[in-house]
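Workshop exercise sheet. Pairs work together: one partner reads the sequence aloud, the other fills in the structure field after running the prediction. Swap roles for the next sheet.
Pair: D.N. / O.F.
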Amino acid sequence: MIEDARPVAVVDEDALRADDDGHPDTDPGVAVDPAHPAYVIYTSGSTGRPKGVVIPHANVVRLFTATRPLFGFGPGDVWTLFHSYAFDFSVWEIFGALLHGGRLVVVPYTVSRSPADLLALLARERVTVLSQTPSAFFQLDAADRDAGSPPLALKHVVFGGEALEPARLADWYARRGESVSLVNMYGITETTVHVTHAGLGPADTAPAPAPWSAAPCPTSAPASWTARCARCRPASPASCTSPATAWPAATWAAPT
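Structure field:
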């Protein structure tokens, strides 16, 4: 990564502490164009060799203009920064709070590894938007069950980063009903975090033959991209629907 990035400077915590009083608290006055890079995240992709993905400012803004109607984020929301900033789920967490005037709670590493402590933080900070990989959430779910499902301010739990098994959400729904919106999203670093959105409900936890699918986020990816259905391999696009909405315009492909 260092060889590929060829950095001209490295800023570490010691350097920041040494110059703690030397940073301005005003707009630096640097002109930024929407096409300018906002960040670079390295991903191994399919080759196993890390490669830098350069994401411009416009893509980050588009991510939230595309998903805002689906969630209704606002200044009253409290987000968690649960993930490492080396994982692009953190882009969703950081800029989701900042772009909507919300509050961002940085989850300490030790708390992120303790489901019981994370549950206590969610209650204490009145978190409304939580992003989780399914494996992390199922541990939190167990802690929530053991604690008697204490009152939470959660509005949305957004899944990403791993394949979700909806059947494993049955116990959560049995205890908490649909008071919290559970949403499964998918994307890759090159497409700026998320490109599909699938709202979930209790019906999705049953091992029924009804197909379950994700719809492209509005304008978040080129129309020519192929959406992937998580449960079914339909004979025709029209036969593959989510429980609430049909997406006949999508081009479906068998999962890989």
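Discussion prompt: Residues 219-256 have pLDDT under 50 and may be disordered. What would you look at next?
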